[in-house]
Protein: Putative pyridoxal phosphate-dependent decarboxylase
Amino acid sequence: MDETAVLKRVLAESVAFLDGLPGRPVNARYDVDDVAEALGGPLPETGTGPYTVIEELLAGAEPGVVAMPSPRFFGWVIGGVLPAALGADWLTSVWDQNAGLLASSPAAAGAERVAAGWLLELLDLPAESAVGFVTGGMMANFTCLAAARSAVLRRVGWNVEAGGLIGAPPVRVLVGQERHDTIDLALRYLGLGSGRSVEVDVDDQGRIRPDALAAALDSGPADGATIVCLQAGNVHSGAFDPFAEAISIAHQHGAWVHVDGAFGLWAVASPDLRPLVAGVAAADSWATDAHKTLNVPYDSGLAIVADAASLHTAMGVHAAYLIQDSRPDPFASVPEFSRRARGFTVWAALRSLGRSGVAGLVEGLVARAARFADQLGRLEGVEIVNDVCFTQVCVSFGSDEVTREVARRLLIDGTAWMTPSTWHGRAILRISVSNYRTTDDDVDTSVAAIAELLAAVRADLS
Structure:
């Protein structure tokens, strides 16, 4: 009885929250200290009924919720949640499957197998690739680079799984100057050291320069262990590296090519946007995040490796107490044993949208970004500082002082959520369009709020 009552209460609250998103301020009403005070106190000596616990959680935490599913949330690159994926996520919790082994949950493993096949078909990647369902883009990069580390060291006669890195031949990693921070973090976790990477020059939009890549590769050992990291979707400009040329150059030098495509890899799904990622399928591994452009719930990173054996060698293990056969278990593709069954939500999103629906979703996000750039660019003294080719828009309001103050007041205002950043030495307001719910009206409402705040800031600072 308690369980049913709790679920009904949560359902009612969930429906009210989603229905209220269009008119809800995007910012939180409580600070972290307020939430901690509301939920805190000494550890209770005795338990509390589940229904009361949920009521206390709602009262204490809900005011601290940032409306990330809002159609006017444009901070970082955070997608919404498709209805089918939300339903699948609830079932994932109810079914409570451990997705580590084939034997532990045929349901979870089967859904992941189908979802992986659909993903490879949708993204036009090699059909024999292995797909690991990880927590997010960070761990997708880590997992792919673990496979890369294993493979490139094996080529020079070193088994890193058995011998570790002490005494191993050096691994040379080449990265673009504007790679995402999670690449550096993954290299730290893997013992490759982010500070040892060779930075390759990029153009004014953050795209790696093939001539600079070739020169950097030429300067290194001809037969060494080498990894090249490319990018599908610069975190500021949204730009894409020139994959066909860069991958060809890297492969001529015997390098493994990894592509960080956290939000931009989904451009492959659109016939109109596919030229942005021409040649990307020739890489050796790809990282992406389904919670971003595909709009499934957290957590849902995807690590894709063309040479499945390299991924399974880096991540897999056999133990006597496990029920295993000759087929690789799901945990052989991820850095976890026990984990959530993440494939249900990805399967549900792809099944609900289909190929044409994913293309429409991506194209819609790009269209909303272009609308932002067009309308904001018409405001006096406002500059769009990137070439808007995908879902990212970077805006300057003249001086850095004005830009930072507009960004600060916008977060307080609550009409829309956009994040301040610095790019090429300039203060900017960064807009990431990632939510399927966002409409033209949401863009227009957000632009109007920015214009009003801009006028107030200019008046106050004049």
Notes: Residues 214 and 249 are 6 Å apart (CA to CA). The chain has three domains: 2-68, 86-349, 358-461.
